[in-house]
Write a structure and sequence with these properties.
Blueprint (H helix, E strand, L loop, with lengths): L1 E6 L2 E3 L5 E9 L1 E12 L6 E7 L8 E4 L7 E6 L4 E6 L8 E11 L4 E5 L3 E5 L2
Parallel strand pairs: 2-11
Antiparallel strand pairs: 1-3, 3-8, 4-5, 4-9, 5-6, 7-8, 9-10, 9-11
């Protein structure tokens, strides 16, 4: 079993910062990648940031949505199966439920995608 647990959400004023954490645990051999999504009230889910390691012989890849470039930073600790999303200069439009999607290889080298439960980020005065 692979489990993904998110934390770090909360209430923050505009211009403030939050750091979200996503920890994948269980029968994980290695991490393939992590994607952070968010879904704001009344809006579709959108991909915020991703960090993906390539196959053997290829490098990783980090991408951000244009709306968060320069403000958000995603980082992965493969050894600890932990990914963080540092969110700076937060804006009210960043308010959303943030979801972590972990792509992993389990102990049988099966490729799995596991979602966290989501954590609410509210940016408001």
């Amino acid at each position: 079993q692979v489990q993904v647990v998110e934390s770090g959400g909360g209430l923050v004023q505009p211009g403030g910062s939050l750091r979200l954490s996503c920890v994948a645990s269980g029968s994980i051999m290695s991490m393939y990648g992590i994607e952070w999504y968010r879904q704001a009230p009344g809006k579709q889910r959108e991909l915020v940031a991703s960090i993906i390691y390539g196959d053997n012989g290829s490098g990783g890849n980090i991408n951000y949505a244009n709306s968060v470039k320069g403000r958000f930073t995603i980082s992965m600790d493969n050894a600890k199966n932990k990914v963080s999303l540092q969110m700076n200069s937060l804006k009210p439009e960043d308010t959303a439920v943030y979801y972590c999607n972990a792509s992993v290889f389990d102990h049988l080298y099966r490729y799995l995608e596991v979602w966290g439960q989501g954590t609410l980020v509210t940016v408001s005065s």
